[in-house]
Amino acid sequence: MAPPRSAAEADIEDERAALIERHGAEDLDTTTGSAYLAALPAERFAALAYRRPHERPYIQPRGGFPTAAKQRALTEAFDAAGADFIPLTVDSHTRHNDYATAAALLAASRAERRDLLNGYPLVSHGVRTTRELFAGIARPVSLRHGTPDARLLAEIALAAGITEIEGGGLSYSLPYSRGFPVERALVHWQYVDRLCASIGPAGAPVHRESFGPLTATLVPPVITVVVQLCELLLAAEQGVTSFAVSFGQTGSFEQDLATAALLRSSATQLLSRFGFNGTRVQLVYHQWMGAFPAKPALAWQLIAVSAAISRLVGADKVVVKTPDEAVGIPSIEHNVAAVEAVRYVLDMFPDSRGVTNEVAEQERELLASEVSTVMEHILAYPAATFLASVHQAVREGVIDVPFAPHEQNAGRLIAARGPGRRIRILDPGSVPISPGDLDRERRLRGSGGGEPVPLWESLLNDIRILS
Amino acid sequence: MSGRWQAGRGPDPAPCGPVLLVDIGSTIIKLCRYDGAGLGAVRRVPRQPGRSPGEQVGALVDEVRLRTDPAAVRVCSSANGGLRVGVLGLTRRHSVAAAARAAVAAGANVCYARVFDDPAADLVAPVDLLVLTGGVDGADLRHLRARLAAVPLASYPHQVLVWSGAYESDVLAGLPVDHVVPNVLDAQLRTARHGLTGLIHQLYVGDLVDRKGLRALAGTVTGPIWPTPAVVGLAAEGLARNLAALPAAAPFVVVDIGGATTDVLYCAELAVDLSNRIVPAESIVRRVFTDLGVASSLPRLRQRLADEPGLVDLATAVAPEHPRALYHQLVDRAELSPATSFLACLFLAVRQLAGSPGQPDALPLARRDGQPQLDARRIASIVITGGAWRTAPEPAIRRVINAACGVPDARWGLHLDRRYQLWAYGLLEVPTYATAGGQAESG
Known about the structure:
The complex is a heterodimer of chains A (467) and B (443). Chain A has 467 residues and is of the alpha/beta class. Chain A has helices at residues 7-23, 32-38, 46-51, 68-81, 92-95, 99-112, 122-133, 151-159, 182-199, 221-237, 253-273, 296-312, 332-346, 358-379, 386-395, 435-445, 455-463, and strands at 58-60, 86-89, 141-144, 164-166, 207-209, 242-248, 280-286, 317-319, 414-417, 423-427. Chain A contains 17 helices and 10 strands.
């Protein structure tokens, strides 16, 4: 006899049942995922991989093709190249819940023998086909997408044996959507978090990962860290016990060191403060997510340096780029080559944790003060739930992601690069940066010397800084 | 309750003899008998489709008169929020404030209250009545003339233009004024509202009578029909004078949720930019939400919910054990239970007044920088009236108000008008001038 359901469990179980019934796939019901995950080998669980000692960051490529045959070929190639995590990157139509268009373009891709989707249409392929992609693969699979409403996607992914779900109500709405209401995205990601928390077998939880790079364009570290901490707390509230915070290469080595250190320490402190002591936190580093150099030779240098930094900041996983980044969707060959190159670089830095310097320490101190002010502001909202507080923070511009396309994003914070290519806040908009910290930001930016440059030109130069 | 009412008589004392009190709502007709000492139980009769309210009420009154002693009859009726009024005047603290109060007292919905010098807003809501006011009779009016001449009337769309300021024959030269009433300010800058209140009331009731087919009540009603919002406003003024039916401490908020509208009346000192209440009896601010109601406005309520941010708070407050299910109901425009409809109206109205930024630019007594209009931290009591609250549990009402105000440490008392009598107390308070032209009351 099943144990009696709590009201909260009933609240989401009824929603699950309705969602799955509406989808109408024969191979999916509310028990499919838990049953399949219970029988999955331990090496397929991301959370268990993270628990194993790992001297270097795990390597996580990206990759998605429309047809199952090509996706299987990519998966086998990654496996052979030694990628530690296998990706499943979802196409844009599926990300926006337009399953009908995704299905039509999948059919056209097959008929015309060319890729008409920029990723794998997971909902169109369904559970059974997707399971086959990973048959015989003894590595965790990570779902990479960008979906504000990922409830059905997560259901199918988990039922297909995917044990790591990337995203969150903020990180997959503000940078990825223009009009999807943020509150609704947060509510839908609450579903995903609770599903991930409850569906895995005992001792092998489904792993959640946030997406820290956001728009990857002049995002000051304080915004990155605050978004990560909010999504961590939102997930922990729902029972998630294995979670990765992440960030993208900032362009400044010192800010990367500071961001990594602060993400780890703040995450631990917050979890402890709110009693989520059972939640383990990992750190993921994204190679440069901004405008990439089109020349392959430069792109390879950037990938190599990014790989080195991921090692030096002590990341648990690095998400790799390919030399095709500036051009389009990477080929299988270049994807494999990137995995091999990153692995080659990572192995050059044995036992290299604990790197820091005076500038990095100053950056960390400033960042810690900024993050503390903003987080305390959000936590002080008199809302009934933390989700409502986070939503209010977005509405009031307390969380403000530069260059985010979302119409609910305030877009008032302005940042630019200062000495050392470090990202400095010029105008915080409504982000509650203290006067003292803002003064430090401005002093650290300095006058820039030379001729004054219009702000738009400065921003454009900053955006193209590594391209 | 009746004892408190009897104990304190306001300037317009309640009638001595029996009175039958009738409120014609959008879905329900309510009748209550006052026997000279206290109020009886409120009888609720659903409106009959296809029959004019006037006919139905006439029949109900006849029925009551057959069973009991002849009584005077006082009637009030709602009209989807009342006339929309805009006020433009010379000084914010004097003429504009006085005219806004006079309009509120007549049951009107004051959409904006501005001074002549305010920069023209980009988009000003059209109103039924635009009231111009300013100056003191007998004083030098050069300044007033100059300001009036510069008013961009085309920027304030309206149906009827009213002058309620200082009068000299040339003051209004060139202005297409439809009605001139006595100045809302006397020579000592005190509010003299009856001229303007009376006009708005006449226009309002005329509109009401025509739209609701209440002419059949002529000869039955003692005095004119009175707008329900104004009646509730009178009851609120009684509360403010500590005379009325409920032991609700000031400063208070009264929320009256009906089938078509939600009315919120609150003590003016709660407004964030008006900390000193000079004349307590004339300091009730009213806001009406014509899209928040539990019956005829239900489609608009559901539409609004689908578009409204921040409903997680509402869902959590209404259904703490299954907020997700309710949240999806709200945003998907699903059918709502009567209790949820009521709580949603309550949440949206209170939040718009007390809890969230982004208010329209030109609301009376509102700050122009988008801050809340009403300081929820200073509320001492919240009174809930109207028929809709009865299906909602009291703990849920408290949670919803807390969520809407966003001030968890506020210490306000909740008073539920359990016998649904606040309107009746207000109708007993109808000023004598309002009944003077009608049939004499018995007793």
